[in-house]
From TrEMBL:
PANTHER family: PTHR43054, SCYLLO-INOSITOL 2-DEHYDROGENASE (NADP(+)) IOLU. InterPro entries: Gfo/Idh/MocA-like_OxRdtase_N (IPR000683), NAD(P)-bd_dom_sf (IPR036291). It comes from Weissella hellenica. This is Gfo/Idh/MocA family oxidoreductase. Gene3D superfamilies: Dihydrodipicolinate Reductase, domain 2, NAD(P)-binding Rossmann-like Domain. Signal peptide: none annotated. Pfam families: GFO_IDH_MocA (PF01408). One of its GO terms (molecular function) is nucleotide binding. Residues 4-116 form the Gfo/Idh/MocA-like oxidoreductase N-terminal domain.
Length: 330
């Protein structure tokens, strides 16, 4: 089956997903939603699509089967809710929702619309190299701790320094370092080790109260994981998962490109595979399979949905610990 795809958001990540969707052969872009018609038309030119909508209700009634949402975090909830009510499958960029209350309402809607599938687009955990990480961690006799780093200078940080407040650095849009960049390592950590027993977040605030960078500590029964992330500087540090004498080194936890396992004798074993041309192809194919083969993939889908909800709860707990409140929380 080929799914009629609609998109909300016309930035680079949307283009990358549409290209992956086309490459999979299981989607056809048929509708574009944009607040400005000219922006939507410009995006559509690359894919020979001229069906551009500026009204959300009309967009959802255009005959699409699935929507990919890459709008600001704060508007995900209403856009996802409306899609589900229209019995449209949803692929929503991370962070999916602002808080657990929003997620609980979405779960209730999903229970009422049982044919709808909801996916959070955490592409890195679906890539083949992440599966290699999972397999190697399972082989390590003991985990002693880990450090994950993802610190990348935002293309919008100069704008912030100039006195403006871009969406990705604003609490108004449920954004900041944690929900924009920190979610990459935190998703990986929870996928590998499960929900932490406790969590703490030491945030470096911006002048508007959002977090520009920070260090989170996730506590497990036998070890702790330190997570460092930020949008106002560049880090070139690797991420590491520590065993006893052995160590797993990950070059970039968001792109999952380089994986090296150092055994007890300090011998390096290169584990990573050559990445796909488009890093979103694996998730595009997986989501299509889960929409098509609902019975066969029911357990895997429910596991993925539970993971997404757990990540949402941990992000909220970290924000609470740091005293960061989004308008959507009230």
């Amino acid at each position: 089956m080929t799914y009629k795809l609609g998109i909300i958001g016309t930035n680079w990540i949307t283009k990358q997903f549409v290209e992956a969707a086309n490459e999979s052969g299981q989607y056809e872009l048929t509708a574009i939603y944009s607040r400005r018609e000219s922006t939507g038309q410009k995006f559509g030119q690359d894919f020979n699509v001229d069906a551009v909508y500026t009204d959300l209700e009309t967009f959802y009634n255009s005959g699409i089967d699935v929507v990919y949402i890459a709008s600001p975090n704060s508007v995900h909830f209403e856009q996802v809710k409306t899609a589900i009510v229209h019995d449209i499958h949803v692929i929503v960029e991370k962070s999916a929702f602002s808080n657990p209350n929003e997620y609980a309402q979405i779960m209730q809607l999903l229970a009422e619309h049982k044919n709808v599938r909801l996916f959070e687009a955490a592409r890195h955990i679906q890539q083949p190299n992440f599966k290699i990480i999972e397999e190697q961690v399972a082989k390590m006799p003991k985990i002693s701790g880990a450090t994950f780093v993802y610190e990348k200078y935002s293309s919008r940080f100069d704008e912030y320094l100039a006195g403006n407040e871009p969406n990705v650095l604003s609490r108004q849009f449920s954004a900041g370092a944690l929900t924009d960049l920190g979610i990459y390592p935190i998703y990986a950590i929870i996928k590998l080790f499960g929900k932490p027993q406790a969590s703490h977040y030491f945030a470096t605030p911006l002048r508007n109260g959002a977090d520009g960078r920070g260090i989170a500590i996730l506590r497990y029964q036998d070890f702790d994981v330190t997570v460092e992330f930020g949008k106002g500087s560049n880090s070139h540090l690797n991420s590491e998962i520590l065993g006893l004498r052995d160590t797993l080194v990950i070059g970039d936890i968001a792109e999952v490109l380089d994986i090296t396992y150092y055994d007890a004798d300090k011998v390096a074993h290169e584990l990573s595979q050559a990445p796909a041309t488009n890093p979103m192809i694996s998730e595009a194919e997986l989501f299509a399979d889960m929409m098509t083969n609902k019975t066969e993939t029911k357990t895997a889908y429910e596991t993925l949905l539970t993971l997404s909800q757990t990540v949402n709860q941990v992000l909220f707990d970290l924000r609470q610990d740091a005293g960061i409140v989004f308008p959507a929380d009230k």
